[in-house]
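step: validate -> pass
step: tokenize input -> pass
step: predict -> running
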Amino acid sequence: MTRLGLLALVLLLVAGCGTTVAATGPGGARERGGYTLGAPYRIEVPARWNGTLLLYSHGYASAQSQMPGTDAPSRQVATSLLAAGYALAGSGYSQQGWSVEQALGDQLGVLDAFTARVGRPRQTIAWGSSMGGLVTALLAERHPDRFQSALPMCGGLAGGVTVWNLRLDGAFAFRTLLAPRSDLQVTGIRDSTANVRLAKSIAKQAQATPAGRARLALAAAIQQLPTWLPKGLQDEQGAPAQETAQYQSWRLAALGADFGNRAELEQRAGGDPSWNTGVDYAHTLQQSGAQAEVARLYSQAGLDLQGDLDRLARAPRLSANGRAVRYLERFGTPTGRLRVPVLTLHTVADGQNSPTNEASYASAVAANGDSALLRQLFVARGGHCTFTPAEQVDAVGALSERVESGRWPAWVEASGVPPDHAAGPPAAVRFVSFRPSPVSRPGKTSTARP
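step: predict -> pass
step: emit ->
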């Protein structure tokens, strides 16, 4: 990668008024801070700009938090992209939590500010991580006149309805099997902090016994949590190692989302947007890809797997609020109708947004006849959004090349190593050919209403 001068114009615009304050940042960068749009945002333009703007959408943050303007996943990634001549921009959003609705408007406001203060980009690439990956996909679908391509990373691209239904499935199985008489709340959560604390306590106790581990594995399989260790490639095989990986996914990500974040979503959407009426969890287990692991753990614990599946079948079901479902369809569920090239990036063992999201998204795109505009990259690593800077920079470069040439780079088609990194550190780039399992809750929400 060619190294360019790092002198950059940095606009740090924070919620409120329109004034700016100039300063000199690291590496000789000029910085300007101020207030506009009701949301903080950041713009960086290198001295030798190549004409391409990267608009970054950040991921989920606690509703009580305040995010600064964020224009890249990390400063290391930002520095590399500025050195390559890309301009960077991104909002901190006017609200946090499941703020997809606000993020869409805030990001378009950043584009307007960039054009007014810097100039019109030759091309604009939308990109983002986690919830920001979903925002990215929606921006590209709904505003193809503003974006020439998109890079959603580690996003819940099956759509909000499916993602939260999967989380409901896991939480429902978790409570029914492990703590049916507890105060743990699956929906209508009154105190999210206390609810997550209770869920973690239940999980810790369950992990200490063979029976508890078996039931944790069943609930994890129903939610399609990965069986890889979050720290990297799994080097241990067998059901115990897989269950340990799933427990780590529960502890590190899923419990907080399932038993905590739902409270904020319900308040925002005007009710619970998830349901499990009519769901057959025995069938869900069959579709999960983890049936053999669960069966072995149940056998080792001396438990009756069919008996627990029967318990799940008999447990009273939960219905959704139609208004809340419609809100989540709008903010946000991608349709899969593409008008610009989209390149997705996902680890093969993401415990927060399962790679099954990519299978669902690809199916939606194919149903619309737009598969030529979609390519999907996978990284042989566990964890949520655990990409190296090199992998993210390579993905940006590949998408930019696709826009410029009209063709996908050969290494993307082959899911191989980019030529520039063939001789680099082996751990820096771990792209791999991978086909994710289908999501266990298939179907568009318009045909799966509660």
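step: describe -> The chain is about 40% helix and 15% strand.
step: cleanup -> pass
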